[in-house]
Design a protein that fits this description.
- There is one protein chain.
- This protein has a single domain, classed as Rossmann fold, CATH 3.40.50.
- By secondary structure, it is an alpha/beta fold.
- The chain has 10 helices and 8 strands.
C-alpha cells in the first residue's frame, strides 16, 4: 500500500505549492512511482508538476453517465466506470497525475468526490507514494475524499486567520474521528522567526509543527512563469525545507 499524504487548509495558504515540493523531494529520493491527486475543483497541481491534463475525473464521469446504456453485458456500471477512469490519469516518468476537475452543471461535488475516493483506493497499491492536494476549507474532510491516509498535513500561513482555520480543522478531525497515524501543521511562506503572538497561538494548538517553508523567490518566479517545481535547484530554500518536512514526517 502506498504511503499517502493529504494536505488541507484554507485557500491561498500554498497547499498546491507544498504538494508539488513534496512530490519533487520524494521523486528525488527514489520513492516512486508517485500518484499526485488534485482534488481541488480549481485545479493547479498540474502546473506545479509541469504535467498536462487530458481529462479529469469529472469529465470521465459525465461521459460515463451519457453512455451507461451502452455498457457491455456482464460488466457492472461501477466496474465499467472504474475502467474508464484510467483515461483521467496523466502518466509521467516518475509521477502520474489524477485531477478531479469540475463536474458539469449545478450541484455539489459529492458524487465526483465519491468516485475519486473509490478510484484512488484502487490505485494506491500501484504506487509507493500518493500526494493529495485537497480543496480549500474543511468540507472535503467530512466527505472522506481520500481514505487510508498515513499523514494529514494542515497548511497555514503565519497569520491569525490561518491559525484559526487550523484550529477548526483539528476540531473537525476529532469530530469525524478521522484516522491518520500522523497529523501535523506546516507553516508556509514564513519570514525568519514567527511573530511572538502567532508563535504563542501555534503552541496552544493540539498538533505538532512538522515543517516551516520559507518564502522563496525561486518558487514565486516559477509560479508566475507556470514553470514546474520539479525543476527547482537543490539549494532552493523551499526545496531544502521540503526535504526537512519529509524527514519530520517519517520520524
Amino acid at each position: 500500500m502506498a504511503w499517502t499524504i493529504a494536505l488541507a487548509g484554507k485557500g491561498g495558504t500554498g497547499k498546491t505549492t507544498i504538494a508539488g515540493l513534496l512530490v519533487r523531494e520524494l521523486a528525488r529520493r527514489g520513492t516512486k512511482p508517485i500518484l499526485a491527486v488534485d482534488s481541488d475543483p480549481n485545479a493547479n497541481l498540474n502546473i506545479s508538476l509541469g504535467m498536462p491534463v487530458f481529462k479529469t475525473v469529472g469529465q470521465v464521469q459525465q461521459e460515463w453517465m451519457k453512455s451507461r446504456d451502452e455498457i457491455p453485458l456482464g460488466v457492472s456500471k461501477q466496474e465499467y466506470l472504474m475502467t474508464t477512469l484510467n483515461a483521467a490519469i496523466s502518466e509521467g516518468k516518475d509521477v502520474d497525475l489524477l485531477v478531479m476537475g469540475r463536474p458539469q452543471g449545478q450541484g455539489c461535488y459529492c458524487s465526483a468526490n465519491a468516485v475519486l475516493r473509490d478510484f484512488v483506493a484502487r490505485l494506491q497499491p500501484n504506487y509507493q507514494a500518493v500526494i493529495v492536494d485537497n480543496e480549500a476549507g474543511m468540507e472535503h474532510l467530512s466527505r472522506h475524499t481520500v481514505e487510508n491516509i498515513d499523514v494529514l498535513l494542515m497548511v497555514a500561513d503565519p497569520t491569525p486567520v490561518g491559525i484559526i482555520t487550523v484550529r477548526r480543522l483539528i476540531e473537525l478531525v476529532k469530530e469525524l474521528k478521522l484516522e491518520a497515524p500522523k497529523i501535523g501543521l506546516v507553516l508556509n511562506r514564513t519570514n525568519g522567526n514567527l511573530n511572538q503572538n502567532i508563535e504563542k497561538t501555534v503552541e496552544k494548538l493540539d498538533v505538532q509543527v512538522l515543517g516551516n517553508i520559507p518564502r522563496d523567490p525561486a518558487v514565486e518566479e516559477y509560479s508566475l512563469a507556470e514553470r514546474s517545481l520539479m525543476e527547482l535547484p537543490e539549494n532552493s530554500p523551499a526545496a531544502v525545507a521540503a526535504a526537512k518536512l519529509i524527514d519530520a514526517i517519517r520520524n
